[in-house]
Amino acid sequence: MSEFLVDADTLANARFGTSQLTETVSALKLLRAPVEPWYRPWKDHHHAAYRAQLAAEPVWAAIVDSAFGTSWAADFFTVPPLEPDLALEEELGPLLALSDDHIRSDLSVVRTPLPSILLETRGLAAAAAGLLRWIWSATIEPDWPRRLRVLQADIVSRTSRLSEQGWSGVLRGLGPDVRWLGEGRIQVNRWDYPPTDVRGRDLMFIAAHTQRVNVSWRLPDRFALAYPVTGIFAPTATPDEPLVQLLGRNRARILVEAASPVSTTLLVATTGLSLATISDHLRVLTDSGLLERRRSGRSVLYWQSDTGRRVVGRPASG
């Protein structure tokens, strides 16, 4: 298994954030490989255009074929950002500065020999950046405001857990193979690589649309774990029309969303409604006995009461 060796300074300065480059590379991985069932609708929607684009850009196709292995991706695709929450163009700067030899060297770690088109083509960094710009603009940017709300809600949820459960609790939820081992050791995956010394260095946790935890670095002093955000492609809760007529569409949607405990922040992310609007609807639903509420750390969680479950058409608990 792979481990990060950390110290108190590493954890004290560790940050959560988003990365448009990480989100874009994650989307590229989903388009080129088998996906879990909950990613299938998104992939089905974009896959034909993706295949057509690669057919029209043979250098892009060769880069994609050469850049991803079973447990490794070409380093130029996975460099963590200097700061969280940067725009894609800001993150592409270091990639665009790389020479063709550097790009080929990174690709050769994953695949050898490289196809002749990559040995003969000049401007490989610009080609790789063009591929990422297309993935971003065609498959992510139109939905980015909603995606960003969900990513930010996930970050808020995980950072609030820090005060309640410590780093052990936070890490436990990042992925099935991520856990706190004690004595300054974090297991990051089950691949058989030597431990990575992150003591006294920067560590970032990047919420992303990805199927599994991915490790990246910008040597000598910046490391990152990109982890799967929860709920980014969760089906939209759709209330039945009689419930909409009874409560109004937004309140009915919120009541259905609260089948399991939800926070105000998560409801803002999943519905797109303002915080003030969500808060008003939650107050009415709670006062009417359809929701129950409880404080959990810094968050307040809401869920359907027995009355609320009956109104929605679900069996009451107990």
TrEMBL record:
Q: Tell me yes or no: is Methyltransferase among this UniProt entry's keywords.
A: no
> Which ranges carry the HTH arsR-type domain?
245-318
The record ties this protein, via SMART domains, to: HTH_ARSR (SM00418)
What keywords are assigned to this protein? DNA-binding, Transcription, Transcription regulation
Q: Name one GO molecular function term.
A: DNA-binding transcription factor activity
Q: Does the record carry Cell inner membrane as a key word?
A: no
InterPro entries reported in the protein's UniProt record: ArsR-like_HTH, HTH_ArsR_DNA-bd_dom, Metal_resp_trans_reg, WH-like_DNA-bd_sf, WH_DNA-bd_sf
Q: What is this protein called?
A: Helix-turn-helix protein
